[in-house]
Write a structure and sequence with these properties.
308 residues, two-stranded antiparallel ribbon, 12 strands, 22% strand, elongated
Length: 308
């Protein structure tokens, strides 16, 4: 399922939840794993001073400092590294999201695993502001492979997942997310829940629909799921379809909780725009912040089509 995994970390407690899932994945699939940390560079001009994203402190970027951070990373993940067959630790100086994407591209990884934020003290702040970390947003936007975002402790690990929730708005981007969701469910042998929320938010409705209209649209959406996705699933019959009306991110989180979802898989964005220009969709952003399980953001079909 996964041959190469990039775990983008700050090697701080803020990355612990993501580390748990990343190392479990590497062990399960005997995948090559790179544990990667990028020091931040000043925004203007050349400098040998870097900003450590773990602490926010400035440090001299030289070989001694880089080696010290590498050793610290190895110590931090020493216990979790056991039984990972091919493991590499790496650091570099640069803009974090740029270096993560560059490394993912160079190593041709199948999956990036990271947290929703970079600093532990930002957890409450980001949720209060209802936004996720900028590095995660930019990585999810630019990545050609799925990005698994872990923002809370995961009570199960990837190989014990039994309920995968795929959420669709029927966009082109959602088609790639479906391919990934189906491959995961089929490979693991778990149940696939396919969910669509009829958007009843003030921004989307523009008018008040009658109950008959709502029920008609729900029926249409269920038929659309059957035609668009179920038709690709062959003999796989371990699935359920659900369509509910409401505010999409609220309904997704509620539905995932109801079916004990272990993993939510969504498209990175919902609008039909160039992935290079697409901002992280507000729905997936809110799901990332509120869901009790990891969320996989899928932006492009490239690596999804290759995954076996």
């Amino acid at each position: 399922m996964f041959n190469k995994i990039l775990f983008a970390t700050t090697a701080s407690p803020a990355s612990d939840d993501a580390a748990h899932v990343a190392f479990d994945l590497a062990k399960k699939y005997e995948a090559e794993m790179k544990v990667f940390h990028a020091f931040g560079l000043p925004s203007r001009g050349f400098s040998s001073i870097v900003k450590d994203v773990r602490t926010g402190e400035e440090a001299m970027n030289d070989t001694d400092y880089a080696n010290w951070v590498l050793e610290e990373m190895k110590t931090t993940y020493e216990k979790q590294s056991e039984n990972v067959k091919k493991l590499e630790f790496a650091t570099t100086a640069g803009v974090a999201h740029t270096e993560i994407l560059r490394t993912a591209r160079k190593d041709d990884v199948d999956l990036i695993v990271m947290g929703a934020h970079t600093r532990q003290e930002d957890v409450g702040a980001t949720r209060y502001r209802s936004i996720v970390g900028s590095t995660m947003q930019k990585v999810a936007k630019g990545a050609k492979c799925p990005v698994l975002i872990v923002s809370r402790p995961c009570t199960t690990c990837f190989w014990y997942f039994s309920n995968v929730v795929f959420c669709t708005d029927f966009s082109k981007a959602a088609d790639s997310a479906f391919k990934f969701a189906f491959k995961v469910a089929n490979f693991i042998g778990c149940k696939l829940y396919m969910f669509h929320s009829l958007d009843m938010s003030a921004l989307a409705s523009g008018k008040v629909m009658s109950q008959e209209e709502i029920e008609e649209k729900i029926a249409e959406a269920k038929k659309k799921i059957e035609k668009r996705y179920v038709s690709q699933m062959g003999d796989f019959d371990n699935y359920e379809i659900e369509v509910l009306e409401g505010i999409p991110y609220v309904e997704i989180v509620k539905y995932s909780r109801k079916v004990n979802g272990d993993l939510i898989i969504m498209a990175h964005h919902t609008r039909e725009v160039d992935p290079e220009k697409a901002l992280l969709g507000s729905t997936v952003e809110q799901v990332v912040l509120r869901a009790s399980c990891p969320v996989a953001s899928v932006n492009r079909p490239d690596k999804v089509d290759e995954a076996e």
